[in-house]
Amino acid sequence: MCGRFKLVALDEEAAAGLGVPFIPPNPRYNIAPTQSSLVVRVGAGGGREWAAMRWGLVPSWAVDMSVGARMINARSETVATRPAFRDALRRRRCLVPADGFYEWSAREGGRRQPFLIRRVDRRPFAFAGLWERWSPPDVEPACGVLVESARGEPAESARGELVESVETFTILTTSPNAVLSPLHDRMPVILPRAAIDAWLDPGLQDAAVLGRLFVPAPDAEWEAVAVGPFVNRPTLDAPVCAEPLAGDDARGGGTPGGQLDLL
Predict the structure, then answer these.
(1) Where are the domains of the chain?
(2) In this predicted model, what pLDDT tens digit does every residue of 52-93 receive, in sequence order?
(3) Active site includes 13?
(4) Which one of 94, 103, 221, 241 is the catalytic residue?
(5) Coil, strand or helix: which one is 141?
(6) CA angle at residue 11 from 6 to 16, to 5 degrees?
């Protein structure tokens, strides 16, 4: 799975690879579920755009937003058939930029060791993501709470207050490569640059064709580096979260360049 990630090293070259203008991001070292992060999607005019969204997909038909905390990831093997994800797979795909993500080793003596998973060349990359727009459902006006908004427009409560709809995203996962398999039985779907145009193509809605992209990232491009326990705190977003432990070698490294030279 993918339960934490970071985005610090986004530059003009990386933005060009995603097909969007370069906007310097606020460095994020420990992005956690329910927090906001940048994604790239196709906008209403057909061009690609940046959007800030909440991590944890909330289907448009959900009663409330609490379900999003359980939908930070979507299994690629079932994403085309699960009601929460199948329409988004056809119509609302996005890229989730990152330059590292975290995974934890199996418990040893009651303690779990966090690892930072990153490209050997330290370049940014893109997770395959889905997004949704959610508004509070209709209620009896006498209740004085929120009612449903029009698509993409503010919702209005029974008291006449305007409330923005909320956009959320999830990250697709697949089976792990050799770097991740000692740590977890899942890893995020990481798109090579050659697949980015197809993933964001609104005319491509064939689940079987999209499914060909849901493969583990090549082993040689990636490494897992032990980091300190600071990343365990979702409220801590600081460089210390990603600092390797002193004297600890990267696990599963490889040679930079090649197929997964994403951005």
Answers:
(1) 5-137+164-242
(2) 999 999 999 999 899 999 999 999 999 999 999 999 999 999
(3) no
(4) 103
(5) helix
(6) 110
State the Cα–Cα distance between residues 242 and 263, nearest whole angstrom: 21
Q: Phi and psi of 56, rounded to 5°?
A: 125, 95
Contacts of 83 (CB under 8 A, 6+ apart): 59
- In whole angstroms, give the CA distance from residue 260 to residue 173: 17
Quick one: which of 30, 17, 3 has its CA closest to 231? 30
Matching residue, tokens 């490569």? 177
- CATH ID of 5-137+164-242, from 3.30.450.180, 3.90.1680.10, 2.30.29.30, 3.40.50.1000: 3.90.1680.10
Closest CA to 225 of 106, 97, 98, 102: 102
pTM of the model: 0.85
164 is catalytic: no
pLDDT tens digit sequence for 85-138: 999 999 999 999 999 999 999 766 778 999 999 999 999 999 999 999 998 875
**Catalytic option among 2, 132, 221, 241:** 2
State how far Cα 153 lies from the chain centre.
24
